Request: fold
Amino acid sequence: MIRLLAALALVSCTAPIGAAFTVSALETGWPRHVITVLTDTNGGPGGADGVFLYDDFVLAAHEQARRTTRSQRPADPAQPWPTLVLSGVGLAEHAIAVDLNGDGVRDILTASEDNRIVVHCSPAFAPATITASQTTPATRWMQLAWTSWGLVGGSRTGPGQIALFVSATPCDGASWSRQKLDDAGWPMSIAEHDGRIVISDKGQIQICNPTCVNSSAKRGFRYLEQDATGAWSNTMIRQVLTTEGDPRFLHVGEWRVDGLDFIGLVSAVGKPNASTLYTARGIVPGWFDLPIAPPASMGELQDVEPCDLTGDGIPDLVYTATGIGEGESGVAALVGPDFTERVEISGPGLVKVDTLACSDVDGNGRNDVVTTDETLGVLWFANEATP
Ligand SMILES: [Ca+2]
Ligand SMILES: [Ca+2]
Ligand SMILES: [Ca+2]
Reply:
């Protein structure tokens, strides 16, 4: 661990922030653009519970509006984004896009908290509920991932579960089968990496009927792995104690530091001990933590993602928050040596921000930030520094 920390420090110190990059103040933030805003079922402004970025479009799951949206990036992304609004999804929590029927157009799958996963196949995008997702007792599907094995869903309550769904005719909702792979508490993220299914789980004790399950043993980061016989095993990478906070959205990837390759997980940990857990393995056996203090003046941490904002090729860390207090930020970043220089992205005035994604939305050579606020809708913030 000491060697890794030294390696990180060495690389960070020898890589100055791009001269054209501007560190903005909390009062100002970056220019904000609206991608999609829906009216919720109470007539109020509707944000989204998750935003997911693809090559030239953004998916968002709008729980309060009971909709999933697919917004196409226009030539000028500061102009309105043409949006396909999909109904029949109920309490939409998460959506993914994958071409299921082989026509070259990505179809859309939505995880819904009212005990269903819904598929919308091109070209009509009519909703078809995957009947195998309608469990007894009911469960709340929170997360989806398209993997080498098929569709993996994660749910909470009922009790929660991690399940694999497969179908030879996936546009037919009745054709899918479900195989439970593991119990779950409150899945926040599911990702395939290196032949495994990696999960972040809040693991809260669930109110469920008829059986209540104390899922605290699932709190943290773990992976599921299939052996040669087809059986699935469950390995805890890093348990997160209640005294540490809640594991939130997880990002898993590989990166190179000082010429060495690492596999790493990064996740925000919410209250009480708000922190960033950068869990890595590489030059030493096993997994270990690289805790990083998050940006000051934010609400409760929700997401953190490695993303190069400064243009030097070295990932910076971008954060979102919920429970944002007056004068606090909802989106901010840490850049520079050892992630110590704070960059304001949203400015104050946001309420509850969810997942984030990085992409050069406007093509100016710098990564921008796409996210959603509960009241302002699906947004992107322009990184206007010139490369
Ligand atoms: Ca398709
Ligand atoms: Ca950078
Ligand atoms: Ca840009």
Summary: DSSP finds one helix and 30 strands in the chain. The pocket of calcium ion (ligand 1) is lined by residues 99-101, 103, 105, 107, 121-122 (CB under 6 Å). The radius of gyration is 20 Å.
